[in-house]
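Sorry, explain these tokens?

___
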Amino acid sequence: MQRVFVALVLLCGLVFGQDAVLTGPTNILLNTGLATPWTNTLNQSVLCNSAFIQGAWFNPGTNTISAYNPLVITAGTAAAITPTMPNVPAGATVGLWFGFNGATLTLADNNAGKDLAAANCVNGAPGSIFLQFAYCNAANFYSLAIPAIAAGQLKVPALGTANDGFACPTTRDFFVVDMDQSDNVATTYLVTTTQLVAQGTVSNQNQLGANVVTTLTNASDIRLVSVAMDGALGCTPWTVPDMAETTTTNMVPTFPTAELQANTLQQAPVALVPITHAMTRINNQPSLIKTNLYRTGCGQTPAASATQADGTVYCTNLYFIGPARLLLNQKNFQNFGSPMPGVANNLFSFLGQRMFTSFGPDGLNCAALLNVANPVVPIKNAGGLFVGAVITPPNPVNTNTGLGTTNIIIIVVCTVVGGLLVIGLIAGFIWYRNRSMYS
């Protein structure tokens, strides 16, 4: 999703910086640490500068997952409402996932990196951050949750069938993924008239009332699927209780539950972070080490070699799956709002420009890798807003012959016509021979 923000970054990059340092508290994964706001060196109340934290814990005693999203505030300010102190059950394992609406997000602490290390935080490979993504203790979280699912203890909701007749999408569906799949988070924050920030809970919304001027959202793959696409397709995301609520019960989607559901239920072909992923390169060159570090944060199987994370294979699946299903849903998606109104006028236009960028040289470079034309051509108005897309999906592949449907039709027609010509020649020869004999 990184370059989905191109238009947004161009607009606000003239005024606001886009490289943020996010400083965390001590005891990051404990109750006190979770309730202590992280501080952003940029103005957190501005959408372009805002960073987000998605928190969740797995409780093996009850085999359940709960959400708790720590707050991020502007350095030197206070929270609009003091964060709710969570009550993490004994024996539960907490994980944190980070997202950012700007260019680069660097994690820091006030203890020479010791607090980050103690919380198993990963910002990228040594000397090369993930850009917008980071996580803490994710490997331990998944190492308990995935076996619990396999044992039938942690229940994963069924995907269901979308209103286009296909399975509801996941974050590992080639209908969903782009140049940097599984990036950012589904957390929201509230901004007040005085530019203070609060956790995005129903309780806080009710308490602040008219003092809330906007809701900050992280334009993430997780949010795109669980809110925009699921809403348009008649699907329901996996949601868990938000433990930051004080007066009500509110169910929310999370990064780890979306990845766990995809890990369990996504049918082949399964999209796993490729070596060409925009956030896993080092000096714009593929890195298997950094790719596997990113996969770890998503609960994905590490690639044993570059071949197992091959970008050409990834692009091939994206080419044959993504454009066709997007075209199928064109009319439906045109009736739903854009996740980023400043970039595109509806959901279809947004997904069209997103897919176009992923295929291009600034994305996964699929068009060049596959030696094909970009199957998506976005349409912009005079103001630069994406208002549509022309999609030309490739011919579907016949799995028995490996030939496209059009090729098969041509072969059949040629065979029939050829057969008729042969029959005609034989009949003509017999007629001519008989005519010669009896004339």
User: Anything to note?
Assistant: The two ends are 81 Å apart (CA to CA). Residues 310-394 form one domain.
